[in-house]
Write a structure and sequence with these properties.
By secondary structure, the chain is of the alpha/beta class. 26% of the residues lie in helices and 20% in strands. Helix 1 packs across helix 5 and helix 3 packs parallel to helix 4. The chain starts with a strand and ends in an 11-residue tail after the last strand. InterPro entries: NAD(P)-bd_dom (IPR016040), NAD(P)-bd_dom_sf (IPR036291), Polyketide_Oxido-like (IPR051606).
Length: 224
């Protein structure tokens, strides 16, 4: 398959690229700046918001793994998403977003999200949370786009081992008063990457938000 990975030099993008490469897919990477040690042969140096219809033409899937953690870049989670999905509208190319766990609902009536729990997401993270949430709402209101919002759990470990085992859940997470006591709240980037490529290869979960997790946090007091 022909895949595009946006944010290919980030933790998630790099893990997803390695898994895609291991399985023999043809990958085009997108990065907003040059890096000293190129990871991928086919590389576009572009801001996500500068991608064109020609750039995405012929791709089987576009995986948006942009990190964008700071106040100057966090709007990319909505602006970049809106731009790319507009390019893909009406095509057969899938769009998959590495989502934010803050967007998970904490009640079955979908009235509250994990970002509302400030012991999980303190006040200084709320702007980033809103950027992720806005991106998800753009997807949910879109038409003619084949999208999947692939949410990691609260504990997303860049250094965790590859177990090759994971579970798929929906958009509901039931938090506890203490984030350290959560269950089914952990996955390594390596296992998440396996799940992402499985979803692409098997054409699963169109127009849904899902969660990938492997189990409980092996070091409950550690934040990632």
């Amino acid at each position: 398959m022909k895949l595009m990975i946006i944010g290919v030099f980030g933790h998630a993008g790099r893990a997803i690229f390695k898994e895609a490469q291991r399985r023999g897919h043809t990958v085009t990477g997108v990065a907003h700046r040059k890096h000293a040690h190129p990871l991928v042969a086919n590389l576009l140096i572009k801001d996500i918001r500068d991608l064109t219809a020609t750039d995405v033409l012929g791709m089987d899937a576009v995986i948006d793994a942009v990190g964008a953690w700071n106040p100057k870049t966090e709007s990319v989670h909505s602006e970049g998403l809106a731009h790319v999905t507009a390019l893909l509208k009406g095509s057969q190319t899938r769009y998959l977003k590495v989502g934010g766990a803050n967007t998970l609902y904490t009640d079955e009536k979908h009235r509250h999200q994990l970002q509302d729990w400030h012991n999980y997401y303190p006040r200084f993270m709320q702007d980033l949370c809103q950027a992720h949430n806005l991106g998800l709402q753009i997807l949910k209101s879109s038409h003619g786009v084949n999208w999947t919002y692939v949410t990691p759990p609260y504990n997303f470990d860049p250094d965790g081992t590859m177990t090759r085992h994971y579970h798929v859940d929906g958009d509901l997470y039931l938090p506890t008063d203490d984030p350290n006591d959560g269950t089914n709240d952990y996955i390594s980037y390596a296992d998440y990457a396996k799940g992402m490529i499985d979803i692409v290869e098997n054409h699963q979960y169109p127009n849904q938000q899902i969660t990938l997790y492997s189990g409980n946090n092996p070091v409950p007091t550690r934040r990632y």
